[in-house]
Amino acid sequence: MRLLVLFWALFWLFPIAWASPSKPLVKEGISSVYTVRKGDTLWDISAHFLSNPWLWPRLWEANSYIENPHLIYPGDQLHLVWFNGQPQLQLKKRVKVSPSIRIKRSPITTLQESLLLPYLVEHRLLTSAELDRLPRVLGDSNGKGYISPGDTVWVDTGLELGEWWWVYRPGKLFSRQLPKGGEGISVRGLEEIAKVKVTEIEGDISQVSLSSFRQEIRQNDVLLPAPLPREKVSLRFVPSEPPLNIQAKILGHLDVRSYIATSDIVVLDRGHLDNVSAGNIFHIYRSGALVEGDKGEYQYQNSGYLKKQYQLSQMALGEIMVIRPYEHFSLAVVTRATEPLGLDILALPPRQPFSESTRL
C-alpha cells in the first residue's frame, strides 16, 4: 500500500514560532548523510538530525529535478548541507540498477502504520445515545456467559444476511464539562472483541458466526458495521499547531493499564468543536506542586485556609499528536515521553523544543 509521506505539506509549513533560538537546530556530531531504511518513520529520521523532530520543515528543501519530492523511500539518501550558514536537507533518490528490474517500494509514513490504523478505521469513542442505537448481543442458545467460536450468537436487531460486523465492548467512561457553563458530556471507549458475519435472520433478531476474535463475546457487547478496508485509510497527518490559547487534559487511554507511555493512544478532553484537528501537536505537562505556609513552615498541601500559597512551575513530560478528533474529545498518540504518565496531565500548545525525551 502506497501511503504518501507528508513532506509536500510539511514543506509549506511556516517556521515554528516557539523554537528556541539558543538551542541548536541540528544535533552535534551526527553524520551528514542518512540512508532511509525499511521501517523508518518521519519521526525516526527527524530524530536522527534534529534536537526536536517537530522542526523538520526548517531543514527540508524541495528539489525540482526530483519527481515527487514529497515521497521518501527505503534506500534514498538524505544529505545535510549548509546554505548561508543555515542547515538544510536534500533528497537523493536511489538509482535503479537496471531498467529490467522493478522493485515495488512503499514510501515511509509519518508514524507507525500498525500503531494508528486500528484507531482510524474503527470508531472508538461513542456517547451513551450513540451506544443505545447500536445492535447488542443477546447471548448464546445454550445460555453461555462467554461465547467463543462454534457457539450460536444472537443479536437483538434484524441485520442484512451476509453482512460483516465488528463486536466491541464498552469500556472506560471519559467525561468533560462544556465551556461557558455548559453541561457535562461523556463518551465510552470501545474495545474490539471479534468480527462476525450475519448467517440467519429470524424476525427482528439475527444470528451471527464468529470469524476471528480477541476474546470471548459477552451479552450486551455492541456491534458496529465493518470499517473501511485498511488500504483505503489515509495516514496523511500534517503536523500543525493547535489553537493558540487552547488548554486540554489527557483523560486516560482505552485499556486498563494505570500508566501511559510512548506510542500509547490517549483520550483528550477537546475535539473538533474546540478547533482541534488531526495532526495538532501538543506538549504535555504535569502541574507543579502547590506549596503553602509562612517562611519556615512551607508544606505541600492546599488546606483551604487563608495562607500564602506558591504554585510551582509545570513539569514538561513529552509530546502528543492528535490522530482522530471527535466532537468533544480526541484520540492522540504519545510521540515522546520522559517518564510513565499518570492522569491529570495537561496538553498545551508547544512553547519550546524538548531536549531530552523518549522518541516514538
From TrEMBL:
Superkingdom of source: Bacteria
Domain LysM: 32-80
Coiled coil: none
Pfam families: LysM (PF01476)
Cross-referenced InterPro entries: Bact_Kbp (IPR052196), LysM (IPR018392), LysM_dom_sf (IPR036779)
Name of the featured protein: LysM peptidoglycan-binding domain-containing protein
